[in-house]
Amino acid sequence: MGRKAGNLYINPKKLGGIAKPCMKEMVSFLNCMALHQCKDDKCEKQKQLLSVCMQGQAEKSKSWGNINYHLQRLTRGRK
């Protein structure tokens, strides 16, 4: 019984705290779509809010170039 020593274990309770950007905007847009039988012309406000949020998230994303450089450097040292 229990976990074996040395195995990777991820606590699922800690994963609940991960930020979910634009979730509120997406849920409100999907609820509006469901309410109006998938007619997005009646949900322009929610659609605009979701678009603005997603554009803001795209600008915040980090470049992966630095991370990849350091990973390559670390793996080069192991060979």
Automatic annotation (TrEMBL):
It comes from the Eukaryota. GO terms for biological process: mitochondrial translation. Residues 16-56 form the IMS import disulfide relay-system CHCH-CHCH-like Cx9C domain. GO terms for molecular function: structural constituent of ribosome. GO terms for cellular component: mitochondrion. InterPro entries: CX9C, Cys_alpha_HP_mot_SF, Ribosomal_mS37_fun. PANTHER family: 37S RIBOSOMAL PROTEIN MRP10, MITOCHONDRIAL (PTHR28066), SMALL RIBOSOMAL SUBUNIT PROTEIN MS37 (PTHR28066:SF1). This is IMS import disulfide relay-system CHCH-CHCH-like Cx9C domain-containing protein. It comes from Eutrema salsugineum (Saltwater cress).
